[in-house]
Each structure stands twice: as C-alpha cells, then as structure tokens.
C-alpha cells in the first residue's frame, strides 16, 4: 500500500519508527488528532504564540478548549520564553512550540517549563520539516509534532500533513483516532492531482500574481482544495469533511518529494545566502539564525514600512512576494475575538504582522530570479525597515 511506503519514507528521514507516523488530508487535522488523543476538552487551555495561522487556534477550539496566546521573540518570531510561564494556569494542558519560516523554537527551556507544570509540548512543524534543533531533526524532541506538506511548505504534496508522536502509547491512540476519519473521495484525489499538475507544469514566477489571485478566488469559492476552506476564515466552527485521513495521491507525491528533499533544502539555503548578503550590503538586518537551530528558510522574512504599497510595487514588477503571518492569526485581520484573540493584546506581534513580507526560496527561484528580486530590493531600499526596533 502506497501510504505505508510513504509513512516508512517519512519515518526513515526522521529516524523514527513508522508506527509513530500518521497521515492526514491537511496538517491541521493532525494537530486536532494529537489534541484529541491527549484528551484536550472543553475548559482546557493550550498555549500558542500570538503569531500563527488561524487553523491552529481553530483546531483547539473545535475540541471546546481555549487558545491562550503568548508573546513572540521579534528576532525568531517564535515564543518569547521569558514570558511563557506567566501564561500557564491550572487549566493548561499543552504548549505549541512553533517553527516559523523554517526555524525551530528553542525547545529545551520550553520543555523544562512544561515538565515543571506537568503539561505536554507539541511542535508546530508546519514550516519545519528538514530543520534541526541541537542536532535533532525537527519534530523529534517534544511529545508529538504535526507537519504540513501544502503548497510552499518544505516539501509539497499539494495539500497534506502528518503527525510524528514520540510517546509510543500516545502514538497508538493517535493511530486509532486517525483510522476513524473519513477517507478522501475520488473527487478529492482527482482535483488535487490536477492542481499538482498545473503547479508543476504551468506555474512560473512570471505569472505568480495572476495565479495567486485565481487560486485564492477558486479556493474561497470551493472549486479547489485551497490552503483554507472558506468556512475556516469566517469563524471557529469545524467545516464539513474536516476530519480526513491522507490520500493516495499525497503519498505518491510525498515519496517523490522526500527522494529529492535534501537537494530542495540546499537550494533554499543557497537562495537565502544570496538574500543574507544582499540585506547586509543594504545595512538591513538579515534573518536571525541562532546557534541552537538549523534554519531551512522555507520563506525569507523581512520588514517594510508600508506593506500594501510594497506588495503593489512587487506586483507591478512581477516579483513573487508572500505575506505569510500578516497578523497574530494569519490571515485574519478583523473579528479576531472569534478565535479568542483580543486586538491590542500583543502590540509587537500585531505591528510585525502589518510590516512583514516574505521572499521565495523554493526551487522555482533560480539564481537569476533571486538576483532579479535582489535588484528590486536595492531599487526600493527606502521602503525597507532596518530592524524590528524601527517599527
């Protein structure tokens, strides 16, 4: 069975047993499964950084639990460990340690705090496959981890996700829950196969903006399987057909992607080095790289004075920029209280969200294309922010 081969390939890469791995239609479903297996329920609290994707607090709320946001470190965009413990209460059951743009959280102190209070740590490795924390592969240090293999993630199966659980008893429980989920339909698999074909054979940087606009429209209209279904962006009510296991087409593409993965990561690091050098020459702070982690640069984040203006400039010049994490619960910028976030709670995270943009590093970005992007940055240096302290 191809899904067993895919699980084995993931397990071999992460150096775990295949019984620790489970597969999902989307990574967020894997998070839900972890939380359910941990018996997270109504009234419980789960701590997460106030700089995340809306589907993360949604998975928490689908179980009746409450997301508790905490401050971020402006250098790493991950949890500010100095402010973490003050968020822990008698209701806290887990901490989500996010990997942002390919950089792991500093896990040792987070795990130490969690053990002190008898709670679990889950690695949010949606951006994290292929990175390392103190020599250990991302996803293998905490109780459990969930990964995403959607578009622009470290490797792509179109949409998709997986869980790795390092507690063998909990892993069995996760597997049992996952087996109760709906299997993707023939229509699901066919539509995803078409999208993968289009992305591989048609999508190019030169048509990035037109393709992005079309993709978002089709996703919101429910015509394709997008990064988020329309309902997920309206409120924290679980959409129909949310609880789906992995698909055969995802397993097939995943096996292919893992075989090429080391080359993929090296390419991202090479492109990031070009950006690092460019920002340094412009006297702009390059991406921060702490000693404890190996950054995989699935996106290269930087700050601008006026986000809408810079995005418009990029579109006019056919520069493929992203706006990942443009709010404390990306991409939501209004009615954040529906996900228990109250505007003004974390001013720094909010400010960064309104000034952050991302440069592409994936394999569609050649050295020539990266240099074209760098020339655009040089031309528009006056629009760049030197560091977060200048926001």
Care to give the gist of this entry?
The protein is 37% helix and 14% strand. The chain is α/β, with parallel strands linked by helices and 391 residues long. A seven-stranded mixed beta sheet has the order 1-10-9-6-5-2-4, with helices on both faces. Strands 8-7-11 form a three-stranded antiparallel beta sheet, with no helix packed on it.
What does it look like?
With 391 residues, the protein is α/β, with parallel strands linked by helices. It folds into two domains: 2-179, 3-Layer(aba) Sandwich (Aspartate Aminotransferase, domain 2); 261-390, Aspartate Aminotransferase, domain 1 (Alpha-Beta Complex), CATH 3.90.1150. The chain has twelve helices and 14 strands. The protein has a seven-stranded mixed beta sheet, with helices on both faces. α1 (2-14) packs parallel to α8, α2 runs parallel beside α3 and α2 (27-37) crosses α5 (168-179). It is globular, with a radius of gyration of 20 Å.
Descriptors for this entry?
globular, 391 residues, Aspartate Aminotransferase, domain 2, 2 domains, three-stranded antiparallel β-sheet, 14% strand, alpha/beta, 12 helices, Aspartate Aminotransferase, domain 1, seven-stranded mixed β-sheet, 14 strands
Give the topology, please.
Blueprint: H1 2-14, E1 21-24, H2 27-37, E2 45-49, E3 52-53, H3 55-61, E4 66-70, E5 92-98, H4 107-117, E6 120-125, E7 132-133, E8 136-137, E9 144-148, E10 161-165, H5 168-179, H6 186-201, H7 208-220, H8 248-259, H9 261-281, E11 293-294, E12 300-303, H10 307-316, E13 329-330, H11 347-353, E14 356-359, H12 367-379
């Amino acid at each position: 069975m191809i899904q067993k081969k895919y699980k084995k390939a993931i397990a071999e890469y992460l150096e775990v047993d295949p019984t620790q791995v489970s597969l999902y239609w989307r990574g967020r479903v894997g998070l839900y499964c972890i939380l359910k297996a941990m018996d997270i329920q109504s009234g419980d609290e789960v701590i997460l950084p106030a700089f995340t994707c809306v589907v993360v607090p949604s998975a928490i709320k689908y179980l009746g639990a409450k997301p508790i946001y905490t401050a971020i470190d402006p250098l790493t965009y991950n949890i500010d460990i100095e402010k973490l413990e003050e968020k822990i209460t008698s209701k806290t059951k887990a901490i989500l340690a996010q990997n942002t743009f390919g950089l792991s959280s500093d896990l040792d102190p987070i795990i130490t705090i969690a053990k002190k209070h008898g709670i679990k740590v889950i690695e949010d490795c949606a951006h994290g496959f292929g990175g390392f924390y103190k020599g250990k592969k991302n996803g293998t240090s905490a109780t459990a981890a969930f990964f995403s293999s959607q578009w622009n993630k470290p490797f792509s199966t179109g949409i998709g996700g997986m869980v790795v659980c390092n507690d063998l008893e909990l892993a069995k429980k996760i597997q049992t829950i996952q087996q109760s989920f709906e299997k993707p339909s023939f229509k699901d698999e066919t539509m995803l196969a078409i999208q993968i074909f289009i992305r591989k054979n048609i999508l190019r940087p030169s048509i990035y903006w037109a393709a992005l606009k079309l993709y978002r429209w089709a996703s919101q209209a429910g015509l394709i399987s997008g990064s988020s279904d329309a309902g997920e962006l309206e409120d924290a009510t679980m959409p129909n057909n949310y609880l789906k296991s992995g698909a055969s087409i995802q397993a097939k593409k995943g096996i292919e992607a893992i075989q090429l993965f080391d080359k993929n990561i090296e390419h991202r690091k090479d492109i990031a080095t070009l950006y690092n050098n460019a920002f340094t020459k412009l006297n702009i702070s390059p991406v921060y790289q702490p000693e404890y982690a190996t950054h995989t640069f699935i996106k290269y984040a930087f700050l601008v004075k006026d986000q809408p203006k810079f995005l418009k400039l990029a579109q006019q010049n056919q520069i493929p920029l992203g706006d990942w994490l443009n709010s404390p619960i990306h991409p939501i910028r209004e009615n954040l209280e529906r996900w228990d976030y109250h505007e003004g709670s974390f001013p720094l995270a909010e400010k960064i969200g309104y000034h952050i943009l991302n440069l592409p590093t994936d394999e569609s970005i050649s050295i020539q294309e990266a240099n074209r992007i760098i020339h655009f940055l040089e031309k528009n240096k006056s629009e760049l922010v030197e560091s977060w302290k200048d926001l």
